[in-house]
Amino acid sequence: MDFKKNQLINISITDLSIDGMGIGKADGFAFFVSGAAPGDYIRMQIVKLKKSYGYGIIKEIINPSPIRISPDCNSFGKCGGCSLRHISYSSQLEFKRSIVKNNLVRIGGFPDSIYVNEAIGMEYPYYYRNKGQYPVGTKNGKTVVGFYAPRSHNIIPIEKCMLASESDSAILKTITSFMDKHGIAPYNEADQTGILRHILIKTSHKTSDIMVCLVINSTEFPFIEDLTPLLKRVGVTTIVLNINQKNTNVILGSKTKIVFGSGYITDYIKDLKFKISPLSFFQVNPVQTEKLYDTILSLADLKGNEIVFDAYCGIGTISLFLARKAKSVYGIEIVPQAISDAKENAKNNHITNAFFYTGPSETICPDLCRKNILPDVIVVDPPRKGCAPPLLETILRISPEKLIYTSCNPSTLARDLKYISPTYVPTQIVPVDMFPHSTNVETVVLLKRK
C-alpha cells in the first residue's frame, strides 16, 4: 500500500520506542505515534514519511490499551519533560526493563536468554527532582519559564511541574514577576540579546537549603540587591550568578559569582553529608539514589579488605559509600571542582580511607597500579556517552576480579559491555528508575572476570 502525508489510517500499537513513542505497523510499514500506548487501537494521521517508516498523530483512540491512564499533567504532550505519563507506572517499569534487555541483545550481542532484574521503582513517583533547569523567554510581552518542546527550543510555559521540587513554582514566579516589573529582558537566542538565559534551582530534600543560580548573558544581573530579599522570603538560602556569554546550547558557563549565602547547599544520602555547588553533579532523585547506592554496595559485596577504584567519581558520593565497607577507595574525576568537593565531603564525613585524584581515569588508574595500588573492584559511572575507549582498555589490562558499571544510557552500556565481553561476563543486571514518567533508566551491572 502506498501511504501519503495527511492520510488517515487505523493501526494497532504494539510497542514503544526508546523515546516513548508508540510503534505500530500497517502493511509491514512502521509508524511512530506520539502519545500512543502498546495495546491501543487508534485512528492516526500520517504527518511525515520516510523510506521505511513514518510518523503519525492520534486523531481518535478507538480502543484504549489496558495500560493507558489519563495523564495528570496539562502540559503532557507539549513539553519535553515527560513521555510516559499516559502509561501506568507498573507498565513504565516493565518498559524500562525491556529497554535494557533489548539494547543488550541488539547492540551488545548478548543472547536473548540474558536475565535482567525487575526495575526498582518509587512508591510515590512525584516531586522527586532536587534540581530544575528552566529556560527563560518571552510570550505575549511577558517573561515565561518552562521546558522546551520536544526537539525544539520553543519554551512551553509551566506554572507547576509534578516532577520538580514543590518550592520551585514560587521561586520561578518571583523571578519572572521581578523581571517584568523592572524591564529585565530574557535572553534571545536569535540575536543573542537579553540577560537571563536559564534559572537553575537546587533543593536539598534533607535540609532546608535551596540554591538559585541565575545563568546570565552578562557579568551582572540588574537590581539583584532588590531581588535577593524577595527570594529569601520564598525559602532561598543562597543565590549565585553563572556567567555564560557564549553562543552555545551548553547551559552553564565556567564562572560563578556568589550573591548571597554560601554558594552551595548541603544534602544527605542516608547519613552521609554532601556539599553541592552549582557545577557539581549530584543525582537528581534522592529517594532512588539511596536504592541505587544500596544496589551498588550489595553487588560489590565488600568484606573490608578490598581496594576499589571509582572512575567518574564526581563529588565522591559513591566513593564515600564504598569506603565504609572497603580497605580503601580511589576516586578519579576530570573536573577539578568536583574533586575539591569530594575531598571536602570526605573530610566532613570523617572518612579517611577515600583518596581523590584529578585527571582522566585511563591515566590515573595505571599510575596508581605502578605504585602497587591494585584494585580488587573497579566502579564506573560514566556520562551518557559511556566509557572512553582508553579506559575500557585500561580496565582490561588491570583486570580486577569485579567490575561494576552504572549507566544512564542502555545503548552505550550495551556497546561497552560488548567491548569487554571477552574478559568479563555480566552476572547481575539491575535497572533502577531514577526518572519516573520519562524513558530514562539507570542500570547497575555486576561483571566478573572470566
Description:
The chain is α/β, with parallel strands linked by helices. It folds into 3 domains: 8-63, Beta Barrel (OB fold (Dihydrolipoamide Acetyltransferase, E2P)); 131-269, OB fold (Dihydrolipoamide Acetyltransferase, E2P) (Beta Barrel), CATH 2.40.50.1070; 283-449, Rossmann fold (3-Layer(aba) Sandwich). 24% of the residues lie in helices and 31% in strands. It contains 9 helices and 21 strands. A 7-stranded mixed β-sheet has the order 8-7-6-9-10-11-12, covered by helices on one side. It has a 7-stranded mixed β-sheet with strand order 17-16-15-18-19-21-20, with helices on both faces. Strands 1-2-3-5-4 form a 5-stranded mixed beta barrel. Helix 3 (224-233) links the parallel strand 10 and strand 11. Helix 7 runs parallel beside helix 8 (389-398). The model has no long low-confidence stretch (mean pLDDT 94).
